[in-house]
Write a structure and sequence with these properties.
Belongs to the YicC/YloC family. The protein is of the alpha+beta class. It contains nine helices and six strands; from the N terminus they run βββαββααβαααααα. A hairpin with a 2-residue loop joins strand 1 and strand 2. It is elongated, with a radius of gyration of 34 Å.
Length: 296
C-alpha cells in the first residue's frame, strides 16, 4: 500500500448550465481529520455532504476547502435597493455628522448595511437545485482525488526518507554492538584497574566489597538489551513502511521507542565511543520523528 503525507494542494473546476464551479483544497498536518469550509452564500446546505466526502477519503490532516461559484449571466436574482430605508440611514448619518462631527457616510458604506440591499428569493426549481448540488459534489470528488494523488506523491518521498533514517539507526546500533569497549576482557581490565587504584588510595577499603560493586556496575553498564530492542524496532519500522497505509501514529510511537533506547544507551555507556554513537543515534531519531509528523 502507498503512504500518504498530510500536506497537499488540489484544484478542480467544471461548468454546469453556464455556472462555473471551482473547488480548492489545502491540507496540512493534523492529529485527526478536520475540515474547514468556505462556501458562498446559498451553498451552506452542501457542507454536511461535502464533509462526509472528505472524511471518507482521509483519516488525518487539517483540510481547508474553498468553493467558488460564478453564476451564468441572468441566472442570479438581482438585488433590489430599499430606497426608503437607505434615505432614512442617509439622513441619520447627516445628523450625526452635523452634531458630532463624525465622518460623512459613503454610498458603499450605506449599501453594505443589512437591509439596504434585498435579494429576492431564487426562482430555481427543486430539480435545478438538485442538479447544481450534484455538480458541486462531483467537482469536489475530482478535487479530492487530486489531493489524494498529491498527498501520495509526497508520502512516497517520505517513505524513502524514513527508510534512510531507519538504515542509519541500524548502522549505528551495529556500530555500538561492535565497539571494542563492550568486549568482556576490556571491561574486566578497566574495572580491575579502577579497583586497584582505589585499593592503593586507601587500605581501609574492603577488596571483596569493591569487586562486588565492580561486578554490579559491569552488569548495569551492559547495553545488550538496548541493542536487541533497537534491532527489533528497526525491523518493525521497515515492516510498517513496507505495509503502507495510515501508519503515522504507529511510526510516531516507534520513534518514541527509538528515543527511549537511545537515551538508555547513553546513560549506561561506559566508553566515550559508545556515548558518541548514542548521541548520534538520538539526532537521527529526532529527524525520523520530525518527518513522521507529516504522515497520515
Amino acid at each position: 500500500m502507498t503512504l500518504q503525507s498530510m500536506t497537499g494542494f488540489a484544484r478542480a473546476s467544471a461548468e454546469q448550465n453556464g455556472d462555473t464551479i471551482v473547488w480548492e483544497l489545502k491540507s496540512v498536518n493534523g492529529k485527526t481529520c478536520e475540515v474547514r469550509f468556505r462556501l458562498p452564500n446559498g451553498c451552506e446546505r452542501l457542507e454536511q455532504s461535502a464533509r462526509q466526502a472528505v472524511q471518507k477519503r482521509f483519516a488525518r490532516g487539517n483540510i481547508q476547502a474553498s468553493l467558488n461559484v460564478t453564476r451564468a449571466a441572468g441566472s442570479m436574482a438581482q438585488p433590489v435597493v430599499n430606497e426608503a430605508f437607505l434615505k432614512d440611514l442617509a439622513s441619520l448619518a447627516k445628523r450625526l455628522e452635523d452634531q458630532f462631527g463624525t465622518a460623512p457616510a459613503t454610498a458603499d458604506g450605506l449599501l453594505a448595511l443589512r437591509g439596504v440591499l434585498e435579494v429576492p428569493e431564487s426562482t430555481e426549481t427543486e430539480e435545478e437545485r438538485a442538479r447544481f448540488d450534484a455538480a458541486v459534489l462531483a467537482v469536489l470528488e475530482t478535487a479530492l482525488g487530486e489531493l489524494e494523488k498529491s498527498r501520495m506523491a509526497e508520502g512516497e518521498a517520505l517513505r524513502a526518507l524514513l527508510g534512510g533514517h531507519i538504515d542509519t539507526i541500524e548502522s549505528l546500533t551495529l556500530k555500538a554492538e561492535a565497539d571494542p569497549s563492550r568486549e568482556p576482557a576490556v571491561i574486566r581490565a578497566r574495572l580491575a584497574e579502577q579497583v586497584a587504584l582505589l585499593l592503593d588510595a586507601s587500605s581501609a577499603l574492603d577488596e571483596a566489597r569493591l569487586h562486588q560493586e565492580a561486578a554490579l556496575l559491569a552488569t548495569k553498564a551492559d547495553i545488550r538489551e538496548e541493542i536487541d530492542r533497537l534491532k527489533t524496532h528497526v525491523a518493525s519500522g521497515r515492516a510498517l513502511l513496507a505495509g503502507g497505509g495510515a501508519i503515522g501514529r504507529k511510526l510516531d510511537f516507534l520513534a518514541q521507542e527509538f528515543n527511549r533506547e537511545s537515551n538508555t544507551l547513553c546513560s549506561k555507556s561506559n566508553a566515550a565511543a559508545v556515548t558518541a554513537i548514542g548521541l548520534e543515534l538520538k539526532a537521527v531519531v529526532d529527524q525520523f520523528r520530525e518527518q513522521v509528523q507529516n504522515l497520515e
